[in-house]
Inverse folding.
């Protein structure tokens, strides 16, 4: 059953159209790799899903069978949608644990607690009292993921989580998804690392200039097909 469903979603920023009739589905417990070059519309799509869209939109977005297009970010967070934003967006004046506690403000019941995220990322437990600004980029990304998990989401949106990180750190973060995934939680991975995103996902959707150019099971396409969809050759 589809937990998230987009039907003919179109988005404009003023007179500039960013998405053209995008339709996709993400099943409960599934992982979608959303790929495409810079400017393809990936972050715009996430913004529309989580209530942070600054442009105007039409079409439909359904989450757990309910229409949500145009709902506020607060309402959608309380409904079970969490975003790990590009650039992490931590609060520089707060400690690691204080940043994490911000994710629990929605007070949704579920398995994720401070002890469980410290078990997932032990280094955060060690550094819990430190300012978030003294952490490495990879450690800050762990804070951003753990903060999102503490809202106990049903849909986790991850925007460019590997950007600027060392390969060993990216490997560690992606390994955590095996423990994060369960039958109720769906994940959308927005990535420019196509190979890694597809390896971690069940399904893939490629955007090019706001349009879907490829969609289906992640293991159904070879590199040539993905490259053609990605670059538009």
């Amino acid at each position: 059953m589809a937990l998230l469903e987009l039907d003919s979603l179109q988005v404009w920023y003023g007179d500039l159209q960013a998405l053209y009739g995008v339709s996709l589905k993400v099943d409960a417990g599934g992982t979608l790799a959303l790929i495409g070059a810079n400017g393809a519309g990936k972050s715009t799509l996430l913004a529309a899903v989580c209530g942070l869209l600054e442009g105007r939109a039409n079409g439909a977005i359904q989450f757990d069978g309910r229409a949500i297009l145009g709902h506020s970010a607060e309402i959608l967070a309380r409904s079970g949608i969490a975003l790990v934003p590009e650039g992490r967006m931590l609060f520089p004046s707060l400690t690691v644990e204080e940043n994490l506690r911000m994710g629990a403000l929605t007070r949704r019941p579920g398995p994720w607690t401070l002890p469980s995220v410290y078990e997932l990322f032990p280094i955060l437990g060690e550094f819990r009292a430190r300012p978030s600004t003294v952490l490495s980029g990879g450690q800050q990304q762990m804070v951003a993921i753990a903060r999102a998990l503490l809202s106990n989401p049903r849909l986790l949106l991850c925007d460019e989580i590997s950007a600027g990180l060392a390969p060993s750190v990216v490997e560690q973060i992606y390994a955590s998804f095996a423990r994060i995934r369960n039958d109720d939680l769906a994940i959308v991975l927005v990535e420019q690392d196509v190979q890694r995103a597809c390896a971690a996902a069940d399904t893939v959707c490629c955007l090019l200039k706001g349009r879907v150019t490829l969609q289906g099971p992640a293991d159904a396409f070879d590199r040539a097909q993905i490259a053609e969809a990605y670059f538009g050759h």
